[in-house]
Amino acid sequence: MKCRLYPKCTAKAATLGFCSTHYRNRLLTGRTGLVSSADVLARLRELRTLGWSFEQIGDACGKCHSSIRDLLAYEPRTVRKATHVAVMGVRVESGSSRLAVDATGTIRRVRALNWTGWTTRQVSVKCGLAQMTLSQLTWKGSVSAGTRTLVAKVYEELKDVEGPSSRIRALSRTRKWDPPAAWDEDTIDDPNAEPNYGGFDEKIVQSLVRGEFVKCSPEDKTEAAFRLAERGMDEYEIARMLRSRPNVVRERLGRVA
């Protein structure tokens, strides 16, 4: 079989109907229908980290789950444009598979709810889980992505609502567990983050307002967001300055207001 450019080229066809020389030329000039796989592979790794199974990713982008698995296994340099569009169109959010993920954020959420008066049993009932599932978190160190998503949802519903158990409130204070106010959306799932009870650091706030990337506390970011808002910036501009998300900025400004 001749190259698709026959009779101009009489070489033997190698890939997609083109000879090896003309295929390389079309690859370099972006005319093969192929694009770099870098963004696709990064998105797939991000989804896997969030707990998505191969089947869930495949269903979301209309691809066979084995092809998704192969992309991560073999890491090709290029993918078809249709594959790129399909994968990049999948929303980045927590999955609900049984893939094991770090339990740090889930433990913090359960203990924070204990601090407000909700027992672990009450939290598990609202999540539709067995109490043992949440009780084992501290020594297992990992949790399924589905459980993490359920607990996070219940946490958002109850974190500002006082629970009925005075016993668990007293116990959580005895054990020095942290309340919901010690965490925000940017830190609660970060194993390296520390709870923050103090005020903001003026030098750090000034650095944040200048757009510098520095290690900071939730209070520092809240104060910086407030000052940037006073300058007339909206939440999207503030989010870019603070390397955060618009909904987190709105939450910070809501706390100050």
**Count of distinct structural domains:** 3
Shape: flat
Measure the end-to-end span. 73 Å
Q: Looking at the chains present, what oligomeric state does this protein adopt? A: single chain
Order of helices and strands: HEHHHEHEHHHHEHHHHHH
Please, what is the average pLDDT?
A: 82
CA-based gyration radius: 25 Å
- Please state how the strands of the largest beta sheet are arranged side by side: 1-2
Characterize the main sheet: 2 strands, antiparallel
The secondary-structure class comes to mainly alpha
Q: What fraction of the residues are assigned to beta strands by DSSP? A: under 5%
Helix content percent band: 40-55%
Total of helices: 15
Outline the low-pLDDT stretches.
none
Number of strands: 4
What does this structure look like?
This protein folds into three domains: 56 residues, 434 Repressor (Amino-terminal Domain); 83 residues, no CATH class; 55 residues. The protein is built from 15 helices and four strands. The chain is mainly α and 257 residues long. The strands form two sheets. It has a two-stranded antiparallel ribbon with strand order 1-2. Strands 3-4 form a two-stranded antiparallel ribbon. Helix content is 54%, strand content 5%.
